[in-house]
Amino acid sequence: MIRVVLPAHLRALARIDGEVELSVAGQVTQRSVLDALETRYPMLRGTIRDHDSGKRRAFIRFFACQQDLSHEQPDVPLPPPVAAGAEPYLIVGAMAGG
Amino acid sequence: MEWRRPGQTWKGVPVSGVRVLVGTRKGAFVLSSDGKREHWEVSGPHFAGWEVYHVKGSPADLDRLYASQSSSWSGQVIQRSDDGGVTWEPVGNKFSYDGVPGTHQWYDGTPHPWEFARVWHLEPGLDDPDMVYAGVEDAGLFRSTDGGQQWQELPGLRTHSSGPSWQPGAGGMCLHTIILDPDEPNRIFTAISAAGAFRSDDAGQTWRPVNRGLRSEGIPDPGAEVGHCVHRLAMHPARPSVLYMQKHWDVMRSDDAGESWREVSGNLPTDFGFPIDVHAHEPDTIYVVPITSDALHFPPEGKLRVYRSRTGGDEWEALTKGLPQENCYVNVLRDAMAVDSLDSCGVYFGTTGGQVYASADAGDNWAPIVRDLPAVLSVEVQTLP
Hints:
The complex is a heterodimer of chains A (98) and B (385). By secondary structure, chain A is of the alpha+beta class. Chain A contains 3 helices and 5 strands; from the N terminus they run βαβαββαβ.
């Protein structure tokens, strides 16, 4: 199972407590994880990446295993510890605003 | 703006209370009271931490509410309630312009692609609770016919031949006002900052500017067909051919459904401001909140005064009882005033300082319902059984 951690405001929107555990078929990439997340929680569509282009929203960041994956291509495989469920995939709201 | 005709019943029961729907910078609040409007129950924040530009109820089903929730981080969400704001469900949030959206002018005069930013205003249909219009930034008009699940643009407005010349106001290029004509089902009025007022007579398919008579010294041609920073339009449903307008500067009136306008600022201390609204039972009684200037977005002399005209403009009286008359430097934004339709018309407005003021006697006396909310973006009222 893939572990995903969402920022608080998106957990509230999707009514999620704690981490999300997702089953992802095939290769575990940012795109396949986000596709699985949005399939289970359709209200998150458009809040993490653009509806049409699929691009990450400017103030959202993707971290895992102490790495910033925000600028990686969406179909690059995620680190093995994420694919194995040992480490979470972190969706983070950028530190900005008030 | 909210209205229900006097003496109206809801599901056979006389109306006897109000529900004030407040959108703020950090969530939505629902303020409820009986017909006396003295004691209030406050619920919220709903959607805590998110900007809520607007919350509005369907005139066809008082339990059906729509809310526009957005943030810089996560974009736009539309929420719907089917129980008067007790519980909410996210509905569709995909606002895609029809076709290739083209460009408008940027602040520096260069072409800038149309980009969706947020929903400023939600206007439920008059007869169908599943019908709702959305005015968005960058300026466009969308409609849902399935309770907000799917949104389709009515592109005739954005693709008007003047569109490439539209420029954003300081708050963005927003479509902030939508008025549905109760007598002419195909007639819709909208207003865009800073393009002006537009009218459709074919249910939103085609549009034309209705800005004749406006003069704006801040644009190259003060009497241009488009380019005016219209802040708000208001209409009384019993007399839909009469429109009132708070422009960047100037309070205006049209007696021919926008074909022509004349200034009715009269003796106002300043004619800059944002909201304008009409008494529920008196189509010639209107309200504005004068603001010092475009550079000084607070009341003149630090005194928060609502001005009322009982003559449809020109002659204005200051309403001050219960409002702060010293050291008050808040603003009242364009969507932050509303009226109820109880026999004694209630008037409500919210401030950027987080106060929501109510008057149960058409503005003669005011009291705060709440004092310390986040900055108020919008206020609407439902008159309830």
